[in-house]
Amino acid sequence: MGPIERAARLLDEAERVFRGHERAEAWLRHHRERLSEPLRLAVTGPPRAGKSSVVNALLGEEVAPVVVAGAPDVPVWFHDGRQPVAWVFRTGAPPWSAPMERAAEGGHLVAGSGGDWGEVSRVVAEWPCRALRHVRLLDLPASPTAAPGRSLAGADGSPMSGAGAVLSGGADAGPGGGAGLGGGAGLGGGAGPGGGAGAGLGGGGWGGAGEADAVLYVARHLGEGDLGALELLGAGRGVGALPVHVIVVLSRADETAGGRADALLGARQIARRRRKEARVAALCQDVLALSAQMALVGRSLREEEYATVAAVAALPREEADAQLLSTDRFTGSASAAGRVALLRRLGLGGVRLAVTLVRTGARSRTALGAQLVRQSGLTELQATVSDLFTARREALKARSALIALDRLVRAESGPPTAHLAAELDRLVGGAHELRELRVLAGLRTGRVALPAELAVEARRLAGGAGTAHAERLGLPAEAPPEELWPAAVDAAGRWHEQTRVAGTATGRRAAEVVLRSCTAILDDLG
């Protein structure tokens, strides 16, 4: 039985215990339906960190921010849809659908907004996009800040808006209330994108982050305020205390080193250094550098933009370098209009890099676009999200469900829920899939140091190449149990020995997790 099935079984049992308790039933139903949804990935961070730019880079086109006039700081969910449309959710009123109009300053404005809309709680934006078929993106309002070491958690240790909101009402439980976003009468089904069962059941975390399964925390420099905000994301107990759901994105990588062509290289070096800091490692899975705007330009580069870059690259080097010294020099030519537009999209550092890439072999719009995407850091971010989040969707969604149930059980503690609390503690104690995620992140970032051959095997056994038994053991998919068993026994023996001889504490803990992965295979086969 996998993590989703175990969590679903416990939620079903909780529904029987809380039958007749309207709010608790709605809370449980909402989180039961979330288990069958795509992964929910939130993007958050402080003001002007570039959250919407990161969303756009992931989508491959300029969609965010989606703005409702008169309703700032509203969470916006992005879903795959047949055509662009926004569903506006208002407190105490049914959702309203409206087209989205491109805004002059970028992003989109919900058509007709600004009138008597009432109190807007959230927006669900449908947008035709392949990237949204397996992930739902949530563009959250700017994050709060806190002094490092000081959490805004409640007295019980849960994040803000936790268990108390279950019974006292408050904000809606998520982007679509009950069945709205998980299936049934949801987006694309008769009753619009939500409303109903989940209303009035507050989410966990701050700013709506508790309604996500994973989080990209976007920051410029990862300062003290950012570390305080990350502590809020990790406030909790049990599975909620493991930071397996957070990746930090340093989103202004092209601004490092004064915008030089090698700025992105410097930003990646900073990210590698920060991810190994003990304090940072305790708050997230990884730290990555990204030039979100460069990534977006790379994915949507126009022919006239390539022509502008190529024309500069074709100039004698001294002349081109002189023009690239400042924005005034770059735009002070006869082709100023095209250059101004390019600067608005790429910035001077991005233009310098693009010129260098054309000089060194990017001889077409397609080639330059691909190089910009790779240099921007987007390819690495996509791979990390895939390995640590999307590929481990079941573990992360089960984690969300267990955290939600833990809040409810602690809010309604007493004899009727005692067996639920005991079973929850048992599941949390056995949440091995989440410990595997920490090992995978440690191997990726270098926080876990193992000999090269062992590191490759550890990643595979921990599920980094797939979670089926054969994939973990490096055998063909059709391998029968009589081949799987001896391979698992051999692997268990090697990693048992590694728990004894590992030279560091982190290496020993990683070996213990990998050994547990081996014994889990043997338990299942036996």
UniProtKB/TrEMBL annotation:
It comes from the Bacteria. This is Dynamin family protein. It comes from Paractinoplanes ferrugineus.
